[in-house]
Write a structure and sequence with these properties.
The complex is a heterodimer.
Chain A: H1 5-52, H2 56-65, H3 67-100, H4 106-118, H5 121-132, H6 139-144, H7 153-164, H8 166-179, H9 182-189, H10 194-223, H11 226-232, H12 242-251, H13 255-291
Helix pairs in contact in A: 1-13, 2-13, 3-7, 3-8, 3-10, 5-7, 5-11, 7-10, 7-11, 8-10, 9-10, 10-13, 12-13
Chain B: E1 3-12, E2 15-25, E3 30-34, H1 41-49, E4 56-61, E5 64-65, H2 71-74, E6 76-79, H3 91-100, H4 110-123, H5 139-152, E7 157-161, H6 169-186, E8 189-194, H7 197-203, E9 206-211, E10 214-219, H8 221-226, H9 231-236, E11 241-248, E12 251-254, E13 257-262, E14 268-274, E15 279-282, E16 289-299, E17 302-308, E18 316-321, E19 331-336, E20 340-343
Parallel strand pairs in B: 3-8, 3-9, 6-7, 7-8
Antiparallel strand pairs in B: 1-2, 1-4, 4-5, 9-10, 11-12, 11-14, 12-13, 14-20, 15-19, 16-17, 16-19, 17-18
Helix pairs in contact in B: 3-4, 3-5, 4-5
The chains are: A mainly alpha, B alpha+beta.
Chain lengths: 293, 345
């Protein structure tokens, strides 16, 4: 081992110098990001739980035994269980059409899917009020047939669906576009019909992206406030979802109960985040595998 | 199964990809569609498969008009350039897919599907890899799985779209020979698309040379190489050199000199095409084409020189023996052994 000592030490010295500088910059940048995160994200989240437990666990759990709270939780679960599956179906169909076919008005359809993202949720709610109110064109017909949409569960479901519509489609369109149509063509050439091709080839190719979209869609469906608030009518025990229930309790200075229900929503957010991270790990590997083909 | 393409035209958004193409493929034949990118060869293959529908014209499988049949009904085995294996299925499930999706009455039992799939994997020399996923295979192995999958449905025609295009040179050559062996054993009517002339000439019974949406020439590898019928085929397949000449009374003239090369073309301007390696070197005084050496390169066993010839704009390449004494600025005269004269376009 007759190595020239100058050759050995020289590059390490410059390398150490280079990393030291970079490390300082990195510490400062990371520090700023962490402080920002702590102030604006972690602190509020912690304070929700602190407030909820201010008067001890018994008060905390008492908030959930209240019939109105239970009704709100049930309604939120009901709305999500209707809106999310429907959005999955529409989202997959829309993404399939946009990613796999060429047709006129495709760009317009893509923009339309984004509409709920660009419109304020309050406006989304108001649109339904205008559509279904007794002064509207549809109103008298609905009334004569005894169909209640506004200030009832159907209205809440509709508003939630509108607001959450882009989640699944937005997630799938780029994924499906990247995957192209050769896998489908291969399946068709092997004799598979349209449904078999979708079920055995397309769906497995998009399943992680789809699951990811469903998670985000569900979180939003359960947490939506603005649009739902406009169409709900705030009838206690009937048309109050969890976010609306939190607002009512808060306005009545019932802080412990308000924060207790809010903590449930916060927990949902945390679970979603954890699942999302896990999926990203898995889904990222999948995407890399696709790219490596 | 005979396949007949009859007067097919295809447009994409009014952009013509194929103009009035007709082609007869005989049963059991291995045919290459050869052409540069954009020549329409892949479009023609996809039209035969039913993955595209012709704007005009028909495709016949045997005597039956297949034009109106869907890709599923045509029962063709299609192999894609980038394999298009189902990445979430194991190798054996990929091969069995075409049997699994058959309607109830014609679907073999699970055991039967498994048995036939592993037989095919054996046939493409991949037994032992049944449980692997496509991502765990090399490119060459993936393409062999794709071929086994296409053969599993007992196709009437095998269609391969640049099957070796994504593989490195060594694997390409191996697979090329292997595909020829497979074809000799199974006698499937096979059409493959390629832009690689070596592949087409080595592998195919007949080569279809395409350019700009038209068929330029159809023939055996010998025919298209030895008797190209257009300047395009001359320059696309093998090496070629060309010289602008005058035709007068069945003789070629260049810069006021008779070249003592005959032609049956009518008088006028013409382009003389020949292979650079297919020339006789002659004494300067005896006619032929004479020029000054401007560049000389050693290429394998021979030496390739560029000649500046009076009356010719571009330099002309020919091949001479590696030990020929000619150096730069030497005068050299030659006469092509085989040639063709095409009208100047």
């Amino acid at each position: 081992m007759a190595l020239d000592p100058v050759q050995v030490t020289d590059p390490t010295a410059t390398a150490r110098h280079a990393t030291t500088e970079r490390r300082t910059a990195r510490f400062i940048l990371t520090g700023i990001a962490l402080v920002f995160l702590a102030l604006f994200l972690v602190l509020p989240l912690v304070s929700v739980f602190v407030e909820a437990f201010r008067k001890g666990p018994s008060e905390y759990f008492a908030a959930f035994s209240e019939p109105d709270a239970q009704a709100a939780i049930r309604l939120t679960l009901l709305v999500a269980s209707i809106a999310v599956p429907l959005n999955v179906v529409f989202g997959v169909v829309a993404a399939w059409a946009i990613a796999k076919f060429e047709f006129k008005g495709k760009a317009f359809l893509t923009t339309l899917i984004d509409l709920p993202f660009s419109v304020s949720p309050v406006i989304s709610g108001l649109v339904y009020v205008l559509l279904f109110t007794s002064q509207s064109a549809l109103g008298p017909w609905l009334k004569s047939h005894g169909i209640e949409i506004l200030f009832a569960v159907p209205g809440i479901v509709l508003a939630t669906m509108f607001v959450t519509f882009p989640f699944v489609a937005r997630e799938l369109i780029p994924l499906m576009q990247e995957q192209g149509t050769t896998d489908e063509e291969a399946a068709l050439s092997l004799g598979a019909n349209g449904w078999q091709t979708f079920w055995h080839v397309t769906l497995p190719n998009i399943k992680w992206g789809l699951l990811y979209g469903v998670l985000l869609c569900n979180a939003r469906a359960m947490g939506e406030f603005g649009a739902v608030s406009v169409v709900s009518g705030h009838i206690r025990g009937l048309t109050n979802t969890m976010p609306l229930h939190v607002e009512i309790l808060y306005n009545e200075y019932n802080f412990v109960a308000a924060f207790a229900v809010a903590s449930l929503l916060a927990l949902l957010a945390l679970v979603t985040l954890v699942l999302k991270t896990l999926l990203e790990l898995r889904y990222g590997a999948e995407l890399r595998a696709v790219g490596g083909h | 199964m005979d396949v007949r393409v009859s007067g097919v035209r295809k447009e994409f958004d009014r952009f013509p990809a194929l103009h009035d193409v007709s082609l007869d493929i005989n049963s059991g034949e291995l045919i290459a569609l050869l052409g540069p990118s954009g020549s329409g060869k892949t479009t023609l293959l996809r039209l035969i498969a039913g993955l595209e529908t012709p704007t005009e014209g028909k495709v016949f499988f045997g005597d039956e008009d297949a034009s109106l049949k869907s890709v599923q009904e045509r029962n063709v085995g299609f192999v894609f350039q980038h394999y298009a294996l189902f990445r979430h299925m194991t190798v054996i499930d990929n091969v069995g897919f075409g049997l699994k999706v058959r309607p109830g009455s014609s679907r073999p039992s699970k055991d039967e599907i498994r048995r036939r799939s592993s037989e095919l994997l054996d046939f493409v020399q991949l037994s032992g890899l049944e449980k692997r996923y496509p991502a765990q295979l090399s490119g060459g192995q993936r393409q062999r799985v794709a071929l086994a999958r296409a053969m599993a449905i007992e196709p009437r025609v095998l269609l391969l779209d640049e099957p070796f295009g994504a593989l490195d040179a060594k694997v390409r050559k191996e697979l090329r020979r292997w595909l020829r062996e497979i074809h000799d054993k199974t006698k499937h009517t096979t059409v493959f698309v390629t832009h690689d002339q070596d592949e087409a000439l080595e592998l195919a019974d007949r080569v279809v040379v395409m350019s700009q949406g038209r068929i330029e020439q159809i023939g055996t590898p010998d025919e298209v190489y030895d008797r190209p019928n257009s300047p395009f085929v001359y320059s696309f397949i093998g090496e070629s050199s060309s010289i602008e000449v005058q035709v007068k009374n069945g003789e070629l003239w260049l810069d006021g000199q008779a070249l003592s090369i005959s032609s049956d073309r009518p008088d006028g301007e013409g382009l003389l095409y020949f292979r650079p390696h297919d020339v006789d070197l002659i004494e300067d005084s005896n006619g032929g084409i004479a020029g000054t050496v401007v560049a000389s390169r050693r290429v394998g066993a021979t030496r390739r020189i560029e000649l500046r010839i009076a009356g010719v704009t571009d330099h002309v390449e020919i091949e001479i023996p590696a030990d020929h004494p000619a150096t730069e600025t030497s005068r050299i005269a030659f006469r092509p052994k085989h040639w063709r004269v095409f009208p100047k376009s």
